[in-house]
Amino acid sequence: MTVVIDRTTPPSAAKSPGPVSAAALARRKADQGGGLYKKRVPIYPKLVHGKWRTIKWAMLIATLAVYYIVPWIRWERPGALPDQAVLVDFTGRRFYFFFIQLWPQEVYFITGLLVMGALALFLITALFGRLWCGYTCPQTVWTDLFIAVERLFEGDRNARMKLDGSPMSFNKLWRKTGKHAVWLGIGFSTGGAWIFYFHDAPTLIRTFWLGTAPLTAYISCALLTAMTYALAGTMREQVCTYMCPWPRIQGAMLDEHSLQVTYLKDRGEPRAPHKKGQSWEGRGDCVDCNQCVVVCPMGIDIRDGSQLECINCGLCVDACDEIMVKMGRPKGLIAYDTDYAVVSRVQGAKPTYHPVRARTIYYTVALALISGLMLWGFLQRSPVDLHVLRDRNPTFVRLHDGSIRNAYTLKITNRGFEPETFTVGFTGLKGVTLKTPGETASQGLLTVTVKPDEVRAVRVFVTAPAKALPAENLPVAFTLRSNIGSTETRTVFLSGEANAR
Length: 501
Ligand code: SF4
Ligand code: SF4
Hints:
This protein has helices at residues 22-32, 51-69, 108-128, 131-136, 138-154, 157-165, 170-196, 201-210, 215-235, 237-243, 246-249, 265-268, 291-294, 315-327, 339-346, 358-380, 496-500; strands spanning 86-89, 94-97, 100-102, 260-263, 334-337, 384-390, 397-398, 404-414, 420-427, 433-436, 439-440, 446-450, 454-464, 474-481, 487-493. It starts with 21 loop residues before the first helix and ends with a helix. The longest helix is centred in the middle third of the chain and has 27 residues, at 170-196. The protein folds into three domains: 48-71 and 82-106 and 137-251, no CATH class; 255-358, no CATH class; 384-500, Immunoglobulins (Immunoglobulin-like, Sandwich), CATH 2.60.40.10. Helix content is 42%, strand content 17%. The protein is elongated and about 115 Å long. It contains 17 helices and 15 strands. The strands form four sheets. Strands 6, 7, 8, 10, 11 and 13 form a six-stranded antiparallel sheet that branches. Strands 12-9-14-15 form a four-stranded antiparallel sheet, with no helix packed on it. Strands 1-2-3 form a three-stranded antiparallel sheet, with no helix packed on it. By secondary structure, the protein is an alpha+beta fold. One iron/sulfur cluster (SF4) binds at residues 263, 268, 286-292, 303, 319-320, 323, 333-334.
């Protein structure tokens, strides 16, 4: 059976015929007010239990654990190199990630990783909707944590609403003070953990409390503390709705086959309260209890259709499942579902899920290509590097015997962890003499020792007898050989003979 999706009234634009939540009403009223700034309508999400809430707790613990623990993982490195597994060392101009050490000129690996991350996010969004927003985005994770603290001090939804509506008292004062103090503590530990990614963590924690840490550490920590407190404590859903570009961008990744939290309107409507013993004939399964609305951290009513604010967290799924169980109705009135499946059911067709689609294929191919390129680049990465800069002023020098000399600066990189002796050679021109300020090449080869994890600049003078030079500038190359790797870099030898003719 062919399923026809009516694009003139997509599910995302559908409006529920039933009552709308107080928060949503207030928001619409403010929207219609025409003011430049909209007053925040406080949201008091109720605690819910269920499968998706459990997954959210697990993700919260896992992501926070990774964030706080990673800078403390030690990784032994030789010599004076830092023993921290993950470190962005601005002073030493290195990025360390376990056994990988990146130099500033290899920043394209970081760019490649960011591109891979973006493509993976596109693919996940095309397949499963805003899973990133609902489960792993730092804004979601920290807001969830802050709400848990709020609940601890002020109680669940009704108690919090009552407390906010009550006049100041000792009870209110200590609860509010305690909550804000813990929020600030979390903010401080968030900022504190962040700076450990940029300095050796055990050293920094000591110097930080002694007051001898770099000024940037204190400034970064203070900024991150304030940001965490403001974004997760006071701004919360406003960050997702108004500040983050992702809800707008993701529209380009979603289609009718993307899984999204969906109210199964065909099953739920017409909604109405239901009394025990009443018949379910001629009505929908939604009992209009509003539980899906009061648990929503974004303050929306999923029965109004899919909305920009929805972060796909699944908490309304848990809330509704709980009600359905109590009512003796099947679970899944609100579920992760696709627009296509909803329309299929309405048209009496069997709903099917289509993970393999043009856009998921594009994203997968692009992701595989970039990952392959990155891996290839990584495997080709040499522990040695040679950059050649030819002197431009003067471009050449004619010596008293008529021979021509060109001068070069060689920058030899030793990415190894031991001192390395390199042999420098020159190809492309016969009969030349190689010289450094302290050494003349024996058998056309110079030896240069470079300390571990260092770049050494060496001046090299190449002299060629005039009769050996043709009438044009010559393509030549420097070669570099060592026990840990070899490389070759091309350059030119400027012929004074040719210029003189
Ligand atoms: S509507 Fe449901 S899935 Fe969307 S944000 Fe609210 S609780 Fe989460
Ligand atoms: S929780 Fe379920 S039954 Fe209750 S209002 Fe929401 S959709 Fe209807």
